Amino acid sequence: MPPQTIRKKSEDWELVPNLLDYDAARENFSWEHELGLLDGLPGGGLNIAHEAVDRHASSDRREHLALRWLDRNGEATDFSYGDLSELSNRFANVLRDLGVQKGDRVFALSERLPALYVTALGTLKNGSVFCPLFSAFGPEPLHSRLSIGEARVLVTTESLYRRKVASLRESLPQLQYLLLVREKPQGELPDGTLDFQQLLDGAADTFPIENTGPEDPALLHFTSGTTGRPKGALHVHEAVLAHHASARLALDLHPQDIFWCTADPGWVTGTSYGIIAPLTIGATMIVDREEFEPERWYGILREQKVSVWYTAPTAVRMMMKYGTELARQFELPALRFMASVGEPLNPEAVLWGQEAFGLPFHDNWWQTETGGIMIANFLSQPIRPGSMGRPLPGIEAAIVRPSEDGSVEIIEEADQEGELALKRGWPSMFRSYLHEEERYRKCFRGDWYLTGDLARRDEDGYFWFIGRADDVIKSSGHLIGPFEVESALMEHPAVAEAAVIGVPDPMAGEIVKAFVSLKPGFEAGETLQREILALARKRLGPAVAPRQLQVEDSLPRTRSGKIMRRLLKARELGLPEGDTSTLEHPGGR
How far is 466 from 499, CA to CA, in rounded Å? Predict the structure, then answer.
C-alpha cells in the first residue's frame, strides 16, 4: 500500500509529516537530541509531568486546550494546559501534606474521569510512582497488585471503593490513604477515607516539582503472565523521551492536532499515549468516559474534529462487524491519521479502514515492558498490511535465536523466523519487575531484550508477527504461527474474530483448531463451518489450515484487546487457566 496522501488541514497550516525520510531519520537520530527538544527541570533533572504540562503552561500555550472530557451525555468539560498545571500542583501538595514521599507508590482505580489525569500528573510532580488499575478488576486481582506494589495511596471512586476495595482494607496494612472521588456527594464518607475534591480544593495551586532524575521510578504497570502472579514493570522518568519521540514519529502528532486515544486507563497505552505522549507534544486530547459504541465513536470523531486517532484491534473488528455503511454516514474531514495497537492488526482490518474512512489503519508494535512504540508503520512510508512496520529511529530490533550458552545468534537473512529482540538502551525500557530480579534478568541475553514474540523480517526491514513463542503450533514437522491462520479465516465474510490453538493429535503431534465469532446476520451451522475451513485450506494449504473449527459468541480477550489463546487452550485441554484478571469478560466464553 503506498504512503498515505498528505492533505492540507487548514488554511494556515499545511501538514508536513514529522518523519519524511526514514533512512535519514535513523542515521541522524540520537536520544541526546531528543532530550534537547524537552526542557528538563529548571534546577536540573527530568520529570515527566513537567515535560507534559508545566513547560506548556509557562509558555504562550498556557490557554491552549489540553484535555476535553466527555461525560455520559456527551457534554464536554475543558481543561487548558494552565488548568492541568494548577490542578496537578494541588494534588502534588495533597500528597506532600499527607507525608507521601518520593518513590512511594500511588495507585488509581478509576474510570476515565478528570480526577484520574490530575492524580497521574500530580503523583509524578511529587516524585511518587503512578500505578493505574483497571476499574473492572475484582477484589482478588486488586489485592494482588496493591500488595505487590506496596501501595501507600489509592485514589478511587466512592462506588468502586464500596464494591471492591472496602473488604480488602484489613489485609493491606501499607495502604494508608484512600482518597474517594465522589460524583454525587451524599451522606458520610466511609470510615478511614478522605474526600478527593475537598483535599484538592484546600491545597495550594503552586508546587515546586520534586527534583527527579532520569533514572528515578515514575510508572508501575502490571502485566499478566501465564502464571497466576502478575508482573509489575517499573519505568523511569527518562521514558518521557520515548513517549515524545514516538508521538512525533510513529503517530505524527503536531501541536495543532486533536488526538483521541481510546485505551482504558488501566492499560499501559492509556498512560503512555492516553496521558503523557500527546501532552508532551502540546496537542489537545479527547477523553471519553464511555466504552465502545459505534455511533457514539463516529460522532466524537466528527464533532470533536479528531485528526489523529489511536485505537485497538478489538475496536476495529467491532466496527467492521457493523459494516462500512454506518461508518460512511459520518463525514470526517479533520481525520488524517489512524493507528492501532494491542495485538497484530489483520490485513483485512488495515484495508477496511481505507474502505470505511478513506484512510488505512497504521499498525504498530510494543509491549508493557518497552513502555512505548518500538516498531511502526509510518505516515509517509508505504504500509504492508499485516506487518508491524519498521523500527523507530533510536530502536535497534533483530530476529534472533537464543543459544544455550546464554548468548543470541542474530539472524541476518530475510524472512527467517526467530524471536524478536530489542537492543538495550532505549529510554522507556522497563528497569525491573518489582521484587522479581531473577525474572527480570531472564528477559535479557547480553545486550538484547527477548520479547517472547516470534517474528520475521523481510528484505526491506519490515517486521512480521508470527505469534507468541508459547503460541506456535508444531504439526507434522511444521511450525505454524497462529496470526497467519487467523488472518486467512478472517477473509471469510462471516468471520468477525478468529483465534487458533494447537490441540494434541496422535499422528501429527498437534493439529490446528480454530475458534471464530460471527458477524451479525450469520448463523453457525455445518455448512458455514465447512465453507470457512475450505477457504482456509485454499489460502494456506492442508498442512497449515485448521482441521477443526468451533463457533463462539465471543472470544476471551484482555481489556487491551488481545485474544487470550492460552486461555482457549487451557479450557480445551482442561489445564489451569493462570492469571485471568485482565479478561474483558471474566468467567466463561
Answer: 13
- Whether 366 and 373 have beta carbons less than 8 Å apart is answered as yes
**Cβ atoms 106, 178 nearer than 8 A:** no
CB atoms inside a 10 Å sphere around CB 44: 8
**Cβ(319)–Cβ(298) below 8 Å:** no
Q: Are 516 and 549 in contact (CB under 8 A)?
A: yes
What three-state secondary structure class fits 150?
A: coil
Q: How far is CA 429 from the centre of its chain?
A: 15
In whole angstroms, how far apart are CA 454 and each of 4, 231, 416, 429, 544?
28, 21, 10, 19, 17
Q: Is the dihedral of CA 465, 468, 471, 475 positive or negative?
A: positive
Torsional class of 37: left (φ above 0), alpha (ψ -120 to 50), beta (otherwise): alpha
Cβ pair 433, 232 in contact under 8 A: yes
Rounded to whole angstroms, how far apart are CA atoms 314 and 173? 38
Residue 83, number of CB atoms within 10 A of its CB:
21
The DSSP H or E segment spanning 455 is: strand 448-457
Beta strands at 129-133 and 105-109: parallel, antiparallel or unpaired: parallel
Q: What is the mean pLDDT of each run of 10 residues along the chain (589 residues)?
A: 54 77 97 97 94 97 98 97 98 98 97 97 98 86 91 96 93 96 87 97 98 98 70 97 98 98 90 98 97 95 98 88 93 96 85 94 96 97 94 98 86 95 97 95 94 94 86 68 83 92 81 92 92 88 85 82 81 73 44
